[in-house]
Design goal:
The chain is an alpha/beta fold. It has a single domain, classed as 3-Layer(aba) Sandwich (Rossmann fold). It is built from 7 helices and 7 strands, in the order E-H-E-H-E-H-E-H-E-H-E-H-H-E. Strands 3-2-1-4-5-6-7 form a 7-stranded parallel sheet, with helices on both faces. Helix 4 links the parallel strand 4 and strand 5. Helix 3 packs parallel to helix 4. The protein starts with 8 loop residues before the first strand and ends in a 7-residue tail after the last strand.
């Protein structure tokens, strides 16, 4: 069998660490040529940079330093991708941040910081990708595929982090809007909403109270891994994901089913 993404050109934001890193390496393993977009090449969890990991496994990857909150940088990212590879088949808007603050503890700067990365960043990535995809000839009925990263906490409340929850709810909404608006142009847009995923990142993600709450809420007998999200992304990025657009694929070990 041919690799699922053989010859596809993919951009993954926030791909130096965590979920984005797993998506980028999985795409490359399935034959995609990957552009890793992030503020730094150094993984938060340690280890070799994503591009080195991909190259070491025989894949193709390029790093482009990008602040997704800035239109000019996202514009340059897609421009560089097309200049190198000729087209853009897959855009994954994964880059995200958080403040870890409830409403009354959230400053205006914290609100702006989270929304600029998590929501404006997705807007920038989607808009620039759609601009490019509209110029391309379809392949297997599709001009291009967008995958946005939401969260279960964009569906249910996000305890102690109002900006993050709001931004992820927005990610789910913009996915649906783009899917409907550009279906006639053969552009696919879907969302993945992870549950509790252990990425190795320090800080809020390792807070004991949050971990205990996640253990109680997750029916599956382990937390999620970045690879679980990458597996879903590979499917949505592939030609096997037919007649699927505007969907929000929840990958949460049954959290929302309980």
């Amino acid at each position: 069998m041919s690799p699922l993404l053989n010859g596809k050109i993919a951009v993954v934001t926030g791909a130096s660490s965590g979920i984005g890193r797993a998506i980028a390496t999985s795409f490359a393993a399935e034959g995609a040529r990957v552009v890793v977009a992030d503020l730094t090449q150094q993984p938060v969890e340690g280890g070799a940079p994503t591009c080195e990991v991909i190259a070491g496994a025989g894949g193709t990857a390029t790093f482009v330093r990008t602040d997704v909150a800035l239109w000019d940088e996202v514009d340059a990212l897609i421009g560089a991708t097309v200049a190198q590879h000729g087209r853009l088949d897959i855009m994954v808007n994964n880059a995200a941040t958080y403040s870890g603050t409830a409403l009354l503890q959230t400053s205006e700067a914290q609100w702006d910081g989270v929304l600029r990365v998590n929501l404006t960043g997705i807007f920038n990535g989607c808009k620039r990708a759609v601009q490019q995809m509209l110029t391309q000839e379809p392949r297997n009925e599709v001009r291009g595929r967008l995958i946005n990263l939401g969260s279960q906490q964009g569906i249910v409340t996000c305890p102690g982090d109002a900006p993050y929850g709001v931004s992820k709810a927005g990610a789910i909404y913009i996915t649906r809007q783009i899917a409907v608006d550009y279906a006639k142009d053969l552009i696919v847009c879907n969302c993945i909403s992870p549950g509790k995923i252990v990425t190795g990142a320090p800080g809020l993600a390792q807070d004991p109270a949050r971990l205990e709450n996640a253990r109680r809420r997750t029916p599956w007998p382990r937390f999620g891994r970045p690879q679980d999200i990458a597996n879903a992304a590979v499917f949505l990025a592939s030609d096997r994901a037919t007649f699927i657009t505007g969907s929000n694929l929840v990958v949460d070990g049954g959290w929302l089913a309980g």
